[in-house]
Amino acid sequence: MSETILEVQHLGKSFGTHEILRDIDFSVKPKDVTCIIGPSGSGKSTLLRCMNLLETPSSGEIRYHGTNIMDKHVNVPKYRSKVGMVFQNFNLFNNMTVLKNCTVGQEKVLKKSKEEAHKNAMMYLEKVGMAPYINAKPKQLSGGQKQRVAIAGIVAMKPKCIVLDEPTAMLDPLGRKDVLNVLHELNRQENVTVILITHYMEEVIDIDKLYVMDDGKLVMSGTPREIFSQVEKLKELRLDVPHVTELAYELQKEGVPLKNGILTSEEFTEELIRVRNEGFNVNNSR
Ligand code: ADP
Ligand code: MG
Asked: Of 283, 200, 281, which Cα lies nearest the Cα of 243?
């Protein structure tokens, strides 16, 4: 059996008679980057909120290193410090400086000394490129900068896992790139397990495991390549695929013998060169 950090088993959640999540099963391996995509309203946020006990599941179990977190003996604040959460917005205290935003959790929850909290915060603010802004207030920052501060603040608490609910939804393309780069770097350098909900397909290309939700259920799981090989199915679910994947798919439909599940422009170019070198003529006049 492979080791898992988080395991969701038969999870269900209803609000009154409205069943939002149905029989959700999945597991997350330590140090993996796991992404969840799915149409709006499919239950992604509710699932993440259950995983952080911001919502109480109606049925099923969530296990963190084998322990059911709904067990009444579980110390919830401690669990939350191990599994940090970043939302679309509202992650920072507007009346506190950048630095204070990154030390307050360490001091209040982890009871760290001011000096240690400061040292940790500076280390991660440095990593996310926000050290020059320690005295700024959140309203002086761009959306991408705010999210990088939020991530630094969470990671300074040394969580094992960081869970993010569309953290880049409000950001411009550059801000999105910065935030994603920071996440991948923290994942690689600090071994933080990452669980990311996003609706930007370019954010889920370079990851370990991808889950697709629809109408409260997990309907697909696999590597990005496995998932994006199934363009028709994703379209039925009203989901985008990466632009190059779509382009390759359209060319395949026109008879160009490209492989399935192309994810990057480099792969796409390589494939085009390969089919040309193998004698395929794009005008179909071999
Ligand atoms: P997603 O994040 O995939 O867009 P959500 O988890 O936010 O989906 O919402 C899934 C469904 O649950 C929606 O139909 C939404 O209206 C409903 N829902 C979410 N939170 C509540 C709540 N607190 N009370 C009632 N219904 C809710
Ligand atoms: Mg949501």
From this structure: 200
Q: Tokens representing 150? A: 């939020």
Distance 44 CA to ligand 1 centre (A): 8
pLDDT (tens digit per residue) in 119-155 = 999 999 988 889 999 999 999 998 889 989 999 999 8
The two tokens of residue 34 are 């796991």
Question: Which atom of ligand 1 is closest in space to residue 216's alpha carbon?
Answer: 10
Supply φ then ψ for residue 211, to 5 degrees. Answer: -120, 145
Q: Can you tell me the distance from the alpha carbon of 240 to that of 153, in angstroms, rounded to the nearest whole number?
A: 32
Q: What is the pTM of this model?
A: 0.90
Cβ burial 74-103 (10 Å sphere, 16+ → b, else e): eeeeeebbebbbbbbeebbeeeebbbbbbb
3-state helix, strand, coil in the chain (%, to 5): 40, 20, 40
Question: pLDDT per residue over 10-56, tens digit each?
Answer: 999 999 999 999 999 999 999 999 999 999 999 999 999 999 999 99
Q: Please, are residues 140 and 65 in contact by the beta-carbon 8 Å criterion?
A: no
- Residue among 14, 22, 45 to mutate when testing ligand 1 (max atoms within 8 A of CB): 45
Check: CB of residue 104 under 8 Å from CB of residue 96. Answer: yes
Label residue 113 exposed, middle or buried (CB < 10 Å: 0-12, 13-18, 19+).
exposed
Residue 23 to residues 166, 206, 215: CA-CA distances in angstroms? 23, 28, 12
For atom 23 of ligand 1, the residue with the nearest CA is 15
Instruction: Provide the token pair at 9.
Output: 């088993």
